[in-house]
Amino acid sequence: MIQRIQTVFLVVVCLLGAVLPFLISLYTNVDGNEVFAQNEPFILVAFIVSAILAIIAIVLFKNRKNQFVVNRLNMILNLFLLGFFVYRSLNLSGESNISEKGIGMLIPIVSIVFLVLANRAIKKDEDLVKSVDRLR
Length: 136
Fold this sequence. Notes:
By secondary structure, the protein is mainly alpha-helical.
């Protein structure tokens, strides 16, 4: 059913991937310019694909196993994005030239948390359906 709690979690993931990267800066480079997702093509594609995977998972509400798998793929994508941000933040100079890490680098972490919560709710629904089938 589409009105389940995992749908709310997946909508939050979709909004985190599709809207927030354009509003919040990822980091500030050495020149003092704020870098958003649209300035980096790899990051932009990763955020958009994450949002699309969340929408696909919402549409797959009748097939909970596939929904679970799509959420896992989305988690892996967000882990790669997080790894890229960690790599980028370690390479930003912080000694003589001032560079700031933005709050936008935390978007994949929040997405992963909501995907884990959605998978937990999907698993709970699947266990409930299995227990009901066992009683028949």
